[in-house]
Amino acid sequence: MSVQHDISAVSTTPDGCPVSSVTQSPTGCPISHQAASFDPFRGAYQVNPADALKLARKEEPVFYSPVLDYWVVTRYDDIKNIFKNPELFSAAITLEQITPVSEEAIEILDRYDFAPGPTIVNEDEPIHTERRRALMAPFEAEHVEKLAPKITEVVTSYIDRFVTRGKADLVDDLFYEVPCIVALLFLGVPDEDIETCRQFGMQQTLFTWGRPPAEEQNRVATGMGQFWEFAGGLVEKLKKTPDADGWIPHAIRVQKDNPELITDNYLQNIMMSGILAAHETTTNASGNAFRTLLENRDAWEKLCNDPSLINKAIEECLRYAGSVVAWRRMTTDDTTVGGVEIPAGSRLLIVTSSANRDESMFPEPDTFDIERSNARRHLTFGLGTHTCMGATLARQELRIFIGELARRLPHMRLVEGQEFTYLPNTSFRGPEHVLIEWDPTQNPVPADRP
Ligand code: HEM
């Protein structure tokens, strides 16, 4: 059983600051002003989650948030221990709606027979590892490498469209569509509508990790219902071509040998969550990486002059500005985290972006250093039994984006004065637009000049 408290006890002032009338944590400890005012859906956390928790990392590294009814964990070692102890910290709530769903929204979902069940990332042992092993083959490096020529071809054709233009929005012109095409290719889905997948991805982020107001909940629930149907339809289509390449056809073949391990409901679930897992995360990671690299001009120029630094730079981008900034677990027993008592059934928001700026692990953590020796120890892909299965593919996409843009547009700059905006939610983070400009007559590749 989970311990949940009345989050309606949280209201906001006219200027949007959360005010909580809950004065004690579930263990009876007084709640500090800092903890009471922690609100991941707006303000400082939306601007930069790691900065927003800087003081907490120092003074109150584990605290109860009445706005969320979650315990918030901010330090590297505590989060690492949570990831490494799946028996005590269950993944079951990973895809739960962080904002309770209204009655009306539930009715809408029922109309679509929306029945999401387990989908690897929210499963516990031993079934989690059994399914993960059975479904792992397409994620292995040798399979992922085979996709590289196709990904390079798609990236090249997208850059061709804007290279002579002198200005672009890296998200709209490149990072949104290409990871979607790659995600569908990886999943084995031929020729799907990218815009449909884009809309569904945004709905799922808001539905699972956002705080949509009541009227928006119905719209989001309708989107989720449609996404669920869409995923089911895709699985049915793929069952007609079981020998095809891709993750879902692979899972359909596993189902033939072991229908109890991989049910139809499971296939529909992994199709739906797979689109989000493979697409949004990588789009956001690319937007974050280029915002960061271009804001740190010396690093970008160094990289353009020496592409052998790309792999290290990718890890530093993922550490400094990861695209998954917080993940969730639930305690299965009474325990302590960072010396703080936490009862069984408590929900934890483990802020990996905060861990990635913990100075006990990363010296001078707020400095962006593409040659940092231990950047790869970031927690952006999680750790332990649930570590991201798609990390090799995500790294490969980032490598191709950085390599191609460094080669063809090393002189691009961020448009000055632009404001970076983010979809408000606890976990998935990337700029909605990254505007760049350059002088196309100076393009280094002669064929790219107007
Ligand atoms: C930069 C991009 C990405 C980031 C930051 C990211 C992050 C994550 C995180 C934080 C987890 C949960 C780890 C945990 O609970 O310990 C995860 C799991 C997972 N990711 Fe990714 N991911 C990315 C790209 C991808 C891609 C491209 C795919 C698919 C092709 C993918 C597929 C998965 C799957 C299947 C899981 C579940 C693994 C399990 O529970 O055993 N991810 N990812």
UniProtKB/TrEMBL annotation:
Keywords on record: Heme, Iron, Metal-binding, Monooxygenase, Oxidoreductase, Plasmid
A Gene Ontology molecular function term of the record: oxidoreductase activity, acting on paired donors, with incorporation or reduction of molecular oxygen
Stretch list, region Disordered: 1-25
Cofactor: heme
InterPro entries per record: Cyt_P450, Cyt_P450_B, Cyt_P450_CS, Cyt_P450_sf
Similarity field: Belongs to the cytochrome P450 family.
Protein's name according to its UniProt entry: Cytochrome P450
Organism for this UniProt entry: Rhodococcus opacus (Nocardia opaca)
